[in-house]
Design brief:
This protein is of the alpha/beta class. The chain has two domains: 67 residues, no CATH class; 212 residues, Alpha/Beta hydrolase fold, catalytic domain (Rossmann fold). 42% of the residues lie in helices and 17% in strands. It is built from ten helices and eight strands. An eight-stranded mixed beta sheet has the order 1-2-4-3-5-6-7-8, sandwiched between helices.
């Protein structure tokens, strides 16, 4: 019996070591993907600008609290004090929001589209999944308030940008209206879902391991980004949650949980056939009508 156990251990120990090494590798790779710098390429110079959508604009820049310079576009509208600020998704570019941004401008709003740190035209800097970008959104709000004292500010965000909009608005009463498209409830939940698609992975242990590595390598725990915990603080300011029923990145269950945790007034629009951040592209006219109408209703002059 002893020799049999010894033989089993002789094979089990290397296999166990390989499994542990594999789990560490997966966790480290995930943390790296979440936070790795975005390298600028020649393709960045070929992006659309407000010129393509015939919107008058000004190139602007402002500085986050830690000194990172952020750059964006200001779409002026002289006959209103409304300012809508657009927040992009993870590793996104402000040019991706030209569709909804130009529509909001045509609906008589001032609009600010900007690049988060390390993306687009903003200064190179380490990225994260919503944690290091929070000061960027706050700097955008400060810029809008200095540019237009007394501005009535609304936020619209997509994916990571939607999570940031929720987190920032929860702590800043100067944000009067929030539209959150395809937000996640927490980093933990979105990573756990990504791992769950691989049946052989032990999801809970690897998520915990990824969290530990992320905290060690990149300076913040997953628990630092949990929109689900603070969304209730937005009330009594209005909130519109938009989500695709076929979202394969942040499942629609995230939207239902956020909606349940939010206070009134609130609205939930589930677009059944839409994928991640895809509601706009399925029916641009309806999307623009709903979003511009929401801001128009809740940002009165």
């Amino acid at each position: 019996m002893t020799s049999r156990v010894a033989r089993q251990l002789r094979y089990a120990v290397p296999i166990g070591g390989a499994l542990v090494s594999g789990a560490v590798g997966i966790a480290a790779y995930t943390a790296h993907i979440l936070n790795k710098p975005r390298r600028r390429t020649w393709r960045d110079d070929f992006a659309f600008t407000p010129w393509e959508v015939r919107v008058p604009h000004e190139r602007v820049e402002f500085t986050a609290q830690d000194g990172v310079v952020l750059r964006g576009w200001w779409f002026p509208c002289a006959d209103t004090d409304h300012v809508i600020i657009g927040c992009t998704g993870h590793r996104g570019s402000k040019s991706e929001l030209l569709g909804i941004g130009s529509a909001l401008w045509r609906a008589h709003n001032n609009v600010l589209l900007f690049d988060f740190r390390g993306c687009g035209d903003s200064d190179p800097a380490p990225l994260s999944l919503a944690h290091k970008e929070l000061p960027d959104a706050r700097a955008a709000i400060d810029f809008a308030q200095h540019r237009m004292p007394g501005a009535r500010i609304g936020l619209i965000g997509y994916s990571m940008g939607a999570a940031i909009a929720i987190l920032v608005a929860a702590g800043d009463p100067s944000v009067r209206v929030v539209v959150a498209d395809s937000s996640f409830t927490s980093i933990h939940d979105v990573i756990a879902f990504a791992y769950s698609r691989y049946r052989l992975l032990p999801v809970r242990p690897i998520v915990l391991l990824t969290d530990l590595i992320n905290r060690w390598r990149h300076g913040y725990p997953f628990g630092a980004v949990r929109p689900i915990d603070v969304i209730g603080r937005i009330a009594p300011r209005p909130l519109l949650i938009i989500h695709g029923g076929k979202d394969g990145v942040t499942p629609v269950a995230n939207a239902h949980r956020l909606y349940a945790a939010a206070g009134e007034p609130k609205d939930l629009w589930i677009v059944d056939d839409a994928r991640h951040c895809g509601a706009y592209f399925l029916d641009r006219e309806e999307y623009v009508r709903r979003v511009t109408g929401f801001f128009e209703h809740w940002l009165p002059t």
